[in-house]
Every structure is written in C-alpha cells, then in structure tokens.
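Quick one: structure for this chain?
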Amino acid sequence: MRGWWCALAAVTLLAAGCGDDEASSAAPAGGEQPDGEPAEQPGADDPTARQAARAGTAWYPGTKAALDAKVDGLLADVGATPAPARAVLVPHASLKYSGHVQAAAYARVEAPDVAIVLASDHDLAGEALAIWTEGPWLVPGYALYTEQEAAASLMAAFPELKPDRAAFDNHPPELQMPFLARLNPALRLVVIAFHDNSRNDFKGFSPERTRALGAALADVIRELEADGQRVLIAATTDLIHYEPLADAERQHDDLLGYIEALDVEGLHAYVTAESTSICGEVPTAVMMATVEALGATPADVEEVARDTSASINSDEEAVVGYTGVVIWR
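Got it. Here's what it folds into:
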C-alpha cells in the first residue's frame, strides 16, 4: 500500500497532506510566495520561541491581518454555536486543503484555557516521545506560551516524555496554532510529539503504553480542571495518504469506526495488520485513551466533517483524506 510513489507525491502535493515533510518549511511548487512579515510579533525577542516556520507560504498566510481573515472566515462558514468538548481530532494539511475540516471541529468547541496538542514528528528526528518546554509558539500576531506546571507534572508522571526541540520542527502541531490563537489568544499549551508518519505503524506504542500515557494525561487534565481551567485536547492526523479515492473512502470508514468506538486495541490491530497510510495513529490513540479515562463514551464522539484533497485538486488517484471529530463533554 505504500510504494515509492508516496515519496514522489509528497514532493508535489506537500500542502495537501503530511509528506513526512523533510522540506516542508518551503512553499510547495506552485505555492504562493511569502506575503510579508507582521509589523509586530509578540514573543519575537525570545530566542527559545518556536518560530512560525510555514507562515507566508502555501501552508498559511504570514501576516496577522491575512491569517485572521482566513481563519475567521473558515470558522464563520461553519456557523456553529460553541459547546463544551473534551477533544478534537483534526488534520494538518495547508489551510487551502484541510482548513475547512479543521474549522468544522474548532468552531464547535468552547475556547479552552489550556490546549494539549498531540502531534506527529514525521521525520523521526527528535526524541521518540517529546514534550515542548521552551518559549512560546509564534503565530503571526500571537505568542502562545507553555503551561509549564502541567508539562512538569506530566513528565513526572510519565518519565519517558523528554524535553526536545527537533521533534517539533514538523508542521502537524504548527498547523493547529492559527485556530487555537483565534479561539483564545491567551491560552497556554502542552505540546507533545510522537515518532509517527505514514510509513510507520504505531512505532514504539503498544495499546498498553498508549493507555498508560492516556491515564497520565487524564490525571493532569483533572488537576487543571480542578483549578478552574478549561482544557481541550487537540490531536491531529491525516487519515489517508496518496491512495485512490475509493480505497481512501473505505479506509476512512474503517478507521473512523474504531475512533468512534474509542477502541484503542481495535485501532492498533487494524493499522498494524493493514499497514494503512494514516500518519497520526499514535496521537489519535493517545487522545482516545485519555478521553476514555476521563469518562467519555462512544456516544460522545461525533465526526463533524470529512473530505479529501481531491475536492481541491481533482486528483482522485492519489488523495489525502481528512476528518474532523469532536469528543463532547
């Protein structure tokens, strides 16, 4: 299911999906040119900040005005009334390709005080299980700071989590920041990255390890909520990579069935047996284990949007599949 063509497609369709992105900070071929730097960037003087590496390329606009207009337009198009939610599962292609699917989830949830972002390190370059403990994540016009006490509590509870920078060079967590910044410009972050891409199946993560991390995350979330903080888990994955549309739709339905059932073991068995091209099965499963530990049931899980890259580029032979899921309180 994963051939040499996947690497070729990653170069030509980078903004449509992950591309396990060795060169994702550059605009893809035919992409828009950088549209300028914001006049004033909060956090820019912090040498430990995580820069907005893909701002001003085909991934998303590079000025506050342009980015706000784009994200606000996507959120407004949903026309939803925000409600309490435990988590979202959203894609991480460019705003052009999957921004509407992200917006379908983010527009429906109440703004959090703390967002726990679960994402993939597609290049497998950093720590296998990494947590960000440094400066703010920069978004054009915004700086989102780490919830350091929560990060420290989580590392104490799950010592396999290691502070790192290289694990966060990829785009999956960065593509969540424009939406999170608009939900609450003052929110604080806990960002975790896992060795995961479309060529690896639950690398280093058994169902037991997944549930152990989910239990540790649930304990930290309970502590935050006891202090009056609203917490949202933002897990990110693209479901399918560069496969024919019919195959992508079949796999989408299969994967979604396990996600909606909060069936961590079933998802693990399916992904490893079928060698599917999902690129974020680990963050997805950790999110599932966490919300279940917090009391969520399958009745709380709702897919609010789905689409493929074919809706944008009309290529039905090599599609990337996207889902937007909300886990309600």
